[in-house]
Amino acid sequence: MMHISSALHYWLVHHPSILHFSWTQGQTLGSSPLFLTLAVLSYLFLTFLLSHLPLPPIQPSLLKPISAVHNLALLIFSLAMSLGCSLSTLSHAPDFRWIICLPPRTPPTGPLFFWAYMFYLSKILEFVDTLLIIASESSRRRLTFLHVYHHAAVVIMCYIWLQTSQSLFPVVLVTNASVHVLMYAYYLSCALGMRPKWKRLLTECQILQFMFSFVALGMMLLYHFTGIGCSGVWGWCFNVAFYSSLLALFLDFHAKNYPIATLKTTKNDYKLS
Fold first, then answer.
1. What is the pLDDT along the chain (273 residues), one digit of tens a residue?
2. Which domain holds residue 203?
3. Is residue 9 a contact partner of residue 87, using CB atoms and an 8 Å limit?
4. Is 146 within a domain?
5. Please, which of 58, 128, 152, 213 could form a disulfide with 63 given CB 3.0 to 4.6 Å?
6. Which long-range contacts (CB under 8 A, 24 or more apart) does 12-19 make?
7. Are 28 and 117 spatial neighbours (Cβ–Cβ below 8 Å)?
């Protein structure tokens, strides 16, 4: 066990590429405002264009293996990010307050920000989720405003994390990546022809994730006004607005698809990444 723990700490925290990581706007890959703008606008344009063109659907015999590989890759990536950020936080946090409230002017360097950067890139990779939905005729009904809005806005949120050295992101990253492990395990199973019975549980875990984030956001605000301040407060403001909109939309989705009076499981699955 000690050998496994040491190996994990080296590859997820102390590897030179991770330990000496630094986010520098305009130098780090994907760090320029132009890249962010083009990535989000390209996603929105292609989603609109492809969803309105009369394209022939890809046959399930080809689409399912592609979907399985995509979901497996993001499952492994999510697990690595959850473990990596958790170990990095435990290795570098002097106390609990630091986890919630990074000191003002914290530079975006080191293992924690490496995993924030990986999280940012993973959200761009998750654009493929939308393409797979459009490519499947039977799944196009899952392409909702909530899906597209979330996938576009979350990339902006992750960019702000890095650009402002935003406090609290380690907590949000670990909880979100952990839920994604379950989510992509579910969709991987579906792609392999096995539909698990815990879809509703996954949906409710996602809602609990948002509620937990609001509690943590409140704690950060308390620390900010009772101490020397927290890094990335403007990023915190964006997060509050974004999470509020997501929670409202997702509660509406839950109410429509999981009515209290019935135990029937919906087939209208949605990936909330």
1. 678 889 999 999 999 999 999 999 999 999 999 999 999 999 999 999 988 888 777 888 888 999 999 999 999 999 999 999 999 999 999 999 999 999 999 999 999 999 999 999 999 999 999 999 888 866 666 788 888 998 999 999 999 999 999 999 999 999 999 999 999 999 999 889 888 887 888 878 887 887 888 888 889 989 999 999 999 988 888 888 887 887 787 677 667 766 654 434 343 444 544
2. 33-44+61-94+101-257
3. yes
4. yes
5. 58
6. 12/80, 12/83, 12/84, 12/87, 12/88, 12/111, 13/84, 13/87, 13/88, 13/91, 13/111, 14/111, 17/114, 18/84, 18/88, 18/111, 18/114, 19/110, 19/111
7. yes
User: What is the number of domains present in the chain?
Assistant: 1
Amino acid identity, position 236:
W
Residue 271 within a domain: no
Taking residue 188's Cβ as centre, other Cβ atoms within 10 Å add up to 20
Tokens coding 237: 């403001």
Residue 155 CA neighbour count, 13 Å, CB half: 25
**Residue 152 CB coordination number (10 Å):** 18
Token readout for 83 is: 């473990």
Secondary structure letter of residue 29 according to DSSP:
T
**137 part of a folded domain:** yes
Phi and psi at residue 217, to the nearest 5°: -60, -40
- For residues 271 and 187, the answer to whether their CB atoms sit within 8 Å is yes
Alpha helices in 136-258 (DSSP H): 145-164, 169-191, 199-226, 233-257
